[in-house]
Design goal:
Layout lengths: L1 H7 L18 H33 L6 H16 L9 H29 L4 H23 L15 E3 L2 E3 L1 H23 L1 H11 L1 H6 L4 H26 L6 H16 L4 H17 L9 H15 L13
Helix pairs in contact: 2-6, 2-7, 2-9, 2-10, 2-11, 3-4, 3-5, 3-9, 3-10, 4-9, 6-7, 6-9, 7-9, 10-11, 10-12, 11-12
């Protein structure tokens, strides 16, 4: 301590000359920046979690392989985007193809695996174990094809942040947030204003009654799987744009998806959206006081606290508890 004071008060130092010592950003400014970053992170979680929530609502299946659909979307867009491993397309058409591939892959999984298993009377616990095995299989296939080295897309890799007062955000991140919100609004409108959306809500509420009312339940479930696969792929592209592409990126995001779904209310698409934004904000703002490696742990702690107060989640119904 004495040595520190001698160095600080030595001639030529800022404190010895009476100059003002440079200070970092104020806590309020850093908190506002972390809140904006949390909104961006929460939007990506919400994009990926909505499909997972809809699948659970219509089939009661906890799909542990949903994270791999996120990774597949990001990796397909990467192979189409880079020049040394693909045709070198711009990220926009590459992303559109990746979303279409994710939707098609989700439909193939439903039609070729989950529907035959359900028709044979396979229990939910057994189906859950199958999703774990499928997750491991897909993850290691991506590992073989993509490799362990992280990568990024060619476009929009390094950008200068736009200063909005105390907050800075790059045009890329601003575009990702805007597109994510538009997609989420589009999903909400689809669920509320279209016939297939009404059918999805009916199947989620009471499958037997929906089937007795003349709704083609199998077709609805197929649409939900395709929608979930497409949204997961889009979220993977957005996550790869804002962060980096790795072979296990979807698996690392999966726990936060589950946290957002449970926090918002099991089976509720709107709850998944709301819960995901809360998880994203808590994860980013916790880095103001704690190491960034613990941000996911604090997000899960917020989940536990909320469930202690409201067990059914933010927008869930008490009848869905358990």
């Amino acid at each position: 301590m004495i040595a520190f004071l001698l160095v600080a008060l030595a001639p030529g130092t800022a404190w010895a000359q009476g100059d003002e010592v440079p200070r970092g950003p104020r806590l309020a400014d850093r908190a506002l920046q972390a809140f904006v970053d949390g909104i961006q992170f929460g939007a990506i979680i919400a994009i990926t979690a909505v499909g997972l929530s809809l699948v659970f609502g219509t089939t009661h299946l906890i799909n542990f392989a949903h994270g791999e659909l996120v990774t597949i979307g990001a990796v397909v867009a990467f192979f189409l985007n880079v020049t040394d491993r693909g045709p070198g397309w711009h990220i926009i058409p590459a992303a559109l193809i990746a979303v279409a591939f994710g939707a098609l892959f989700g439909g193939v999984l439903e039609r070729g695996m989950w529907r035959p298993l359900r028709s044979r009377g396979t229990g939910l616990i057994s189906l859950f174990i199958v999703t774990i095995g499928l997750s491991l299989l897909l993850r290691h296939i991506v590992l073989v094809l993509f490799g362990t080295r992280p990568a990024s897309y060619r476009e929009y890799d390094i950008q200068r942040a736009i200063d909005l007062g105390p907050v800075g955000i790059t045009p890329r991140d601003l575009t990702v947030v805007a597109l994510s919100v538009l997609v989420l609004v589009g999903v909400a409108l689809m669920l509320q204003r279209t016939r297939i959306g009404t059918a999805v809500r009916a199947v989620s509420s009471n499958r037997d009654l929906a089937e007795a009312s003349g709704i083609d339940v199998q077709r609805v479930i197929l649409v939900v799987w395709m929608l979930g696969g497409g949204l997961a792929a889009l979220g993977g592209v957005f996550f790869g744009l804002t962060e980096i592409i790795t072979w296990d990126m979807g698996f690392r995001l999966l726990l936060l998806m589950f946290a957002g779904i449970i926090l918002g209310g099991l089976g509720s698409a709107y709850g998944a959206m709301a819960g995901s934004f809360v998880i994203g904000v808590v994860a980013q703002m916790s880095s103001l006081w704690f190491p960034i490696d613990l941000q996911n742990a604090w997000a899960l702690l917020a989940l536990i606290v909320v469930l202690l107060v409201r067990p059914q989640g933010i927008l869930g119904r008490p009848g869905r508890v358990g």
